[in-house]
Each structure stands twice: as C-alpha cells, then as structure tokens.
Amino acid sequence: QVQLVESGGGLVQTGGSLRLSCAASTRTFSAYAMGWFRQAPGKERKFVAAISFSGGSTYYADSVKGRFTISRDNVKNMVYLQMNSLKPEDTAVYYCAAGSSWPIKAYDYWGQGTQVTVSS
C-alpha cells in the first residue's frame, strides 16, 4: 500500500509559478513510476506528466510541455511538479499517482489532490 499526499497548490496570477509536491509513504518508492494528473470542474481527469523509476525518463501532455517540469527525489520519497507560465486553463485539482510499470500502463495509487487556481 502506498499513500500519496499532495501539497503546494494555491491561487496564482496568470504567468506565475507554483511547485507542487507529493510525499509517498512507502519503503520502495523507487519501484514506482509517478505521474501527475489534473481535473478541472465538470471535466474528466487528464494526464499531465510522468516520470520513470529513476527519474531518467519523463513525458508530458502537449498542453504543458515547455512550461511544467516533473522531477523526483528517491531519497526523500518525493515527486514534484514545477509549473511555470501558468494560464487560467491550468486551473484544476492536481493529483499525484503511482504505478508499478514503465511506461505506465495503469496507476495503482492516487492522492487526494491539491487545488490550483490561476486568475486572469
């Protein structure tokens, strides 16, 4: 069982930056690939970014490529999402997720989410 807790969300103006964090409670964090998803009000949850077990491989949704960066620290059991040049359409609840394969075929564990609001 892996518990994931997101933090770092908040209110930011267009063009601003936020750094989301996700803390994982597991002794085998490096055995999980990690991802970030987001869900805007009234819309489906969508993929944002993913990172491999060691952090050597990443991939991003086209909508965030060049603006967001996913990273991880396998010593601290943390995964991060650095979000720059934020836009109002980035407003959503952001979720951290863990999966046991790479490329990830399915996510086994999910956090509760953190709200990000970008004002215009």
Structure description:
With 120 residues, this protein is mainly β. The protein is 0% helix and 51% strand. It is built from no helices and eleven strands. Strands 2, 4, 5, 6, 9, 10 and 11 form a seven-stranded mixed sheet that branches. Strands 1-3-8-7 form a four-stranded antiparallel sheet, with no helix packed on it. A hairpin with a 4-residue loop joins strand 7 (68-73) and strand 8. The protein is globular. The termini are far apart.
Report the radius of gyration as a whole number of Å.
13 Å
> How many strands, what sense, and barrel or not for the largest sheet?
7 strands, mixed
| Structural class label | mainly beta
- Low-pLDDT runs: none
Give the N-to-C terminal Cα separation. 40 Å
Based on Cα principal axes, name the global outline: globular
Q: Helical amount among residues, as a percent range?
A: under 10%
Strand content: over 45%
Query: Could you tell me the number of beta strands?
Result: 11
Could you spell the SSE succession in H and E letters? EEEEEEEEEEE
Average pLDDT across residues? Answer: 96
Number of H/I helices: 0
Structural key phrases:
11 strands, 120 residues, 7-stranded mixed sheet, 4-stranded antiparallel sheet, mainly beta, 51% strand
List the helices and strands and how they pair.
Elements lengths: L2 E5 L2 E4 L4 E8 L7 E7 L6 E6 L6 E3 L7 E6 L4 E6 L8 E8 L9 E2 L3 E6 L1
Parallel strand pairs: 2-11
Antiparallel strand pairs: 1-3, 3-8, 4-5, 4-9, 5-6, 7-8, 9-10, 9-11
